[in-house]
Amino acid sequence: MSPKVPAASKPSTKLFVLDTNVLMHDPTCLFRFEEHDIYLPMFVLEELDNNKKGMTEVARNARQTSRFLDGLIGEDTRDMEQGVTLQTAANKAATGRLFLQTQFIDQELPKNFANGKADNAILGVVMYLHNQQPKRPVILVSKDINMRIKARALGLEAQDYFNDKVLEDTDLLYTGVKMLGPDFWDQHGKGMKSGAQGEHTFYTLQGPLCRDFLVNQFVYQENGDNPFYAVVTQQNGDSATLRTLTDYTHSKNAIWGITARNREQSFALNLLMNPDIDFVTLLGQAGTGKTLLTLAAGLMQTLEHKLYSEIIMTRVTVPVGEDIGFLPGTEEEKMSPWMGALDDNLDVLNNSDDSSGEWGRAATRDLIRSRIKVKSLNFMRGRTFLNKYLIIDEAQNLTPKQMKTLITRAGPGTKVVCMGNIAQIDTPYLTEGSSGLTYVVDRFKGWQHSGHITLQRGERSRLADHAGEVL
Fold first, then answer.
1. Where are the beta strands (DSSP E) in 72-199?
2. Which of 22, 77, 403, 440 is the most exposed place for a label (fewest CB within 10 A)?
3. CA angle, residues 314, 318, 321, in degrees to nearest 5
4. Please, what CATH class does the domain formed by 170-244 belong to?
């Protein structure tokens, strides 16, 4: 007796067969396929069961998927081959049906496909459904590239899971900076008013380009010896207000002995030193100065301005969420192998002042280290940080869910700085388009208490710059 094949609930609907890694990456994917139907092979349920134990993000997602499935099926004793509606009170957009494999499917694959392997068993189910319903699109959805390649080699349709992607093309990601054209002032200068508050000058503009501005976005116009740099403080329809910046490339505005070496670094320091900005994201390749600028601003505001009680620095220990208990010592000592970048940058900051001598530098080093705490991401759940300067390094390796868990730890008076390079993602199944860092950059843009800068130029050395170009 051959297993029944799910009939289409509506004409033109597709049947998506989900791989296990999609469910363990995003349990809510069950409700993300709108009017289309979902099919879960029995091997997927077996793999969910095998991965449900532990405190990792994968284990949590496996358990959440099982809870979703239990809530959908419940005590329904109807024939499962008829499918279960995916629409719930919380997910009214999902109008398709969920099918579970209830009978053994013996679909022969080419002899070079090993028997007993879960991936190949899932491919066999997809091939069976495809052969039984040739007029209906049957699509395998998997985060595993090799799985998708094998499916296409068998003539089956396969695709990545796209619903978790913030952007299809990361070249469209918000950079935080906009260049003004040479005729900008001619088009928007009518009715322009300027005023001064302290060392800053304000400009109120009217014109169609103002619609494209976002609050806390930096604008610039480099006219030879008279460049113009400003930040958008207000935007409403065709009008916007710009405020000139503090020039951190000048030595008089040095932060903990550090001056900005390029335009984007100066923009970044304007965000990091602004107490009204609670959330800052910094993107950039290695050597663009993300960690150095963030630490310098943190030390200045913690030790000199007394805005924050201490600096907390954390980063992802890949593999994400795994226990670091195999390393000896305290939590901070366990994290030290991953914190070489912190020590390197503290050495630079501590040696920026040669007037204090060796004894003075040693005392400063001890003072700095006493105000910097290194924490593991594994133990962030349930905590609340008050008046802290929280630095999240290597944030590109966080999922959107993990990023939300971290940022919501911030209590009153806390500033959060996320930095990373989306070209260096080490977390399995995470891409530039679905990284938690990409997610927060896109979702926070335009909020009056957040800002973002993409640092463009490396500042390590001519050797590092040349290596980045030719290697």
1. 84-85, 97-100, 138-141, 157-159, 177-179, 193-197
2. 77
3. 75
4. mainly beta
Superfamily of domain 15-159: 5'-nuclease (3.40.50.1010)
Report CA-CA distances (Å) from 245 to 230, 231, 250, 294, 409.
5, 7, 12, 18, 30
User: Smallest Cα–Cα separation from 389: which of 411, 417, 368?
Assistant: 417
If pLDDT is split at 50, 70 and 90, which confidence band does 322 have?
Answer: very low
Q: Is-above-0.85 flag for pTM?
A: no
Q: Is the peptide bond before 319 cis (omega within 30 degrees of 0)?
A: yes
Residue type, 15: L
Q: Do 369 and 343 touch, CB atoms closer than 8 A?
A: no
**Residue 418 DSSP SS3:** strand
Helix ranges restricted to H, 1-56: 20-25, 42-50
Residues of the chain within CATH 2.40.30 domain(s) are: 170-244
3-state secondary structure of 350: helix
Cα end-to-end distance, the chain, whole Å? 60
Q: What is the mean pLDDT of residues 377-389?
A: 79
Distance CA 363, CA 310 (A): 17
Q: What angle do CA 239, 242, 245 make, to 5 degrees?
A: 170
- In CATH terms, the fold of domain 264-470 is Rossmann fold (3.40.50)
Mean pLDDT on 313-329? 58
List, for residues 260-277, the tens digit of each pLDDT value. 989 999 999 999 999 999
Residue 259 has pLDDT above 80, yes or no: yes
Most confident of 4-18, 111-125, 238-252: 238-252
CA distance 337 to 319: 14
Domain with CATH 3.40.50.1010 in the chain: 15-159
**Is residue 353 predicted with pLDDT exceeding 80?**
no
Report the distance separating Cα 102 and Cα 105, nearest Å: 9
User: Sign (positive/negative) of CA torsion 320, 403, 86, 124?
Assistant: negative
Q: How far apart are CA 6 and CA 456, in angstroms?
A: 52
